[in-house]
Amino acid sequence: MRVAVFGAGGVGAYFGARLAAAGVELAVIARGAHLDAIRAEGLRVDSVLGDMRVDPAIASASTADVGPVDVVLLGVKTWQVAEAMQSLGPLLGPETLVVPLQNGVETVDELEETLGRRYVAGGVCGGFCFIVAPGHIKHIGGVTFIKFGELDGYRSLRIEALREAFVRARVDAEVPDDIRVALWEKFLLVVPFGGVGAVTRAPIGVLLRTPSTRELVATGMREIESIARARGVPLAEDVVERTLAILDGVNPSGTASLQRDIAAGKRSELDEWTGAVVRLGARAGVPTPLHDFLYASLLPQERRARGELEF
After folding, report:
1. Global pTM?
2. Distance between CA 204 and CA 199 in Å, rounded?
């Protein structure tokens, strides 16, 4: 199996390294100092599940240097997906599967519209992973998993082959009966946690141990649950309670990438996370007062990071 990781900044690099350590031929698409370090010293991952260093078969800034692969793990930020799609062509063969790893519910539709359904799977993953230095990824835990599936629910040979590759790599991999449910479950988990964390500047342990902020996170989850149900996504009746229980079990120092990016003054996925809740809620006729507030509160910092405001 040939797997390309397009965007090796966190979870993409982690899952790619796990596959490479298990014998999969890995290609990494990256840029700048990160790419230079991977070429020179390999891809290093420090993980609570075991450290590793792997040498990708190919590390390049250009997909043309890689050619067709069996699987593309699309690990770029959600706001980078539109640009990334324009570069995927050389990676696509007759049976190539593109698995997006973004925390959003709109990316699959964007990929399907541009690439065609034949190439696109739904994908969702978990785990606290981030770059600590060029070529060096740190994985501090959290509930670490990957889920993926064909958009029509068919358990195809290529989906099963990828699942088996992850199992050999000792990764918790699942093919859900309905990948839409998995996408919305993850969206419901990460978006309120990220937005409330960004406003309060507190890690998940503090958010959940403080009654007032725990209720804010739960309120955000209920807003997203209402949107999903309005769109016909069959979430479990106890989805909010189960999701809070999952977060109760993660590393209490954990923060969402949205929170880390905003705190660092970087462009974030605010529009694709919190903003998406506001947009989708308006379309579905579902009120989202908490996300309205979070989005409005964080937008000035986001616009400063994009160079649209100075203060």
Report:
1. 0.86
2. 12
Whole-Å CA distances, 76 to 14, 29, 59, 153, 175: 13, 10, 16, 25, 22
d(C-alpha 175, C-alpha 300), whole Å: 39
DSSP state string for 201-248:
T--HHHHHHSHHHHHHHHHHHHHHHHHHHHTT----TTHHHHHHHHHH
Tokens of 255: 């923060």
Rg (alpha carbons) of the chain, rounded to whole number: 19
Residue with tokens 């997203």: 224
CA–CA gap between residue 226 and residue 277 (Å, rounded) = 10
Residue whose C-alpha is closest to residue 31's, from 9, 58, 54: 9
What whole-number distance in Å separates Cα of residue 36 and Cα of residue 201? 33
Beta-carbon-side half-sphere exposure of residue 47 (alpha carbons within 13 Å): 23
Q: What is the CB neighbour count within 10 angstroms for residue 296?
A: 11
Kindly give, in sequence order, each residue whose CB lies less than 8 Å from that of residue 211, ignoring residues fewer than 6 positions away: none
What angle, rounded to 10 degrees, do the helices at 211-230 and 274-284 form? 50
DSSP letter assigned to residue 5: E
3-state secondary structure string across 251-311: CCCCCCHHHHHHHCCCCCCCCCCHHHHHHHHHHHCCCCHHHHHHHHHHHHHHHHHCCCCCC
Q: Which residue has the tokens 């590793």?
A: 52
- pLDDT reading at 142 higher than 80: no
Per residue in 9-24, pLDDT (tens digit) is: 889 999 999 999 999 9
What tokens appear for 234 in the block?
A: 């069959």
